[in-house]
Amino acid sequence: MPKSQNMELSVKHSGKTYTIPVTQETTTQAFKDAISQLTRVPTERMKVMVKGKLVKDDTDYVALANQKQAVMVIGAAEALPPPPTQQIVFLEDVGDEGIKSDEPTGLINLGNTCYLNSTLQAIRAVPEVHQALKEFTPSSSPSSSLPEFRVTNSLKNLFVIIDNTPNAVPPLEVISNLRTLAPQFAERDQRGHYAQQDADEAWTQLVQALRAALPKNGEEGSVVDRLMSIELTKTLKNAETEEEPETTSTETVLKLECNISGTTNFLMSGIQDNLNQQVEKTSATLGRNATYSMQSRISRLPEYLVVHMVRFYWRRDIQKKAKIMRKVKFPLELDLSDIVTEPLRKKIQPLNSATKQILKERDARASILKRKPGQGLDEEKKKRDEEKAMVEGLVKEGGLTNGEGSGMYELTAVVTHKGASADSGHYIGWSRVDDGAYVPAEHQRWAKFDDNNVTFTDANKILSMDGGGEDSVAYILLYRAAKI
């Protein structure tokens, strides 16, 4: 796809002139959002005029730039926040060679958008989605103007910038299109500022947009379907009579929920609570409402497992989503073999056992190598090649296909929340930044994405964010299938 034309428009407000880059993809909302970030004039109180007339939704900003038209902005500015500590970079600033360093890139907070920034960093932890966005080309069909396609294209543009600059980037186009797709993200607080939002809801909207817009591959669906879809087989049984036969159905979901009750101490127990529920429905056999036991088990494993820690619930007395502070421990390595269907368990059991044994042995060898730095590296490489060959043999022998992996997963990204409610506080993203192969916990390196501020930590810090107070606590967990 040819590179968007690099143009600039002069914007005048209160005696000052600003320059805003525009492309053929620039929407009026995105243009107003960019003006708002520079002038601090809220978009709903802003009048944007060219030649004395208000701009329209279909205004061609590249044409205006070609005509060297001046844009006038009328509206009162709000108080200035502290400026970002890093230079803001736009797509037009990135040349063909790029200006990227090896360090991860942060995202500018545009005013209560930490929920979005942290979620975007988690999405970037899935390289296959990143690659699919690189290859994404909007078509000329009417569907390309749908909000899902505009969100996907803005993600593509944003990731291009991130890939080519070390400086913090403002996700202006993404937030503008997200607010069009889901107007809840355009809600304002009592002071007229954009309100804080729920990161899980942002994750859901972004992933669903990618699922709809990215190319489909037959029955496999989009890259989102292939990587993240979980097939659940559900068994429904009447708990009040043996005369009614149980029924079985399947459902495809893109994440698991971890319920948190007064007795939940571990991630897996919370997931199991969600998969085993009591429901009330009308019984044709009894001719009245009855209690049913509904048990769900995984019949297709994802390549990437998303777990939503259900930490918020609606409190009528305060009219807010209150936070469940309870400490719930989660592992760096997660075994799902206990919550798959019996046929799938039997099929993956040899690979599951072998993978757990390999990971255990690698941890032991890593402890030895740590005491002897620089020694035994050739032997370790040889051993890993042997382990990989053994795993490939088990996959072939068992006839395992996509969705039938080992059931073992490694934590690769986390979104945390700090504060007392979903619609307040602060979200932070955390991602593994090592080489992708299995790395023992003591050697893992994690990046902390606190909006534009990027620092580094270790796995112990990640595991410590398991709750117990208003400090940062894991809210979204992203696991990937263990790589041998």
Automatic annotation (TrEMBL):
Keyword tags: Hydrolase, Protease, Thiol protease, Ubl conjugation pathway
Q: What is its EC number?
A: 3.4.19.12
- Origin superkingdom: Eukaryota
Keyword Transferase listed: no
- Gene3D superfamilies, sorted: Cysteine proteinases, Phosphatidylinositol 3-kinase Catalytic Subunit, Chain A, domain 1
Which one GO biological process term can you cite for this protein? protein deubiquitination
Q: Which InterPro entries match?
A: Papain-like_cys_pep_sf (IPR038765), Peptidase_C19_UCH (IPR001394), Ubiquitin-like_dom (IPR000626), Ubiquitin-like_domsf (IPR029071), UBP14-like (IPR044635), USP (IPR028889), USP_CS (IPR018200)
- Spell out the protein name for this chain: Ubiquitin carboxyl-terminal hydrolase
Is Hydrolase there in the keyword field?
Answer: yes
Q: Which family does it belong to?
A: Belongs to the peptidase C19 family.
Q: Which reaction does it catalyse?
A: Thiol-dependent hydrolysis of ester, thioester, amide, peptide and isopeptide bonds formed by the C-terminal Gly of ubiquitin (a 76-residue protein attached to proteins as an intracellular targeting signal)
Q: Where are the annotated coiled coils located? A: none
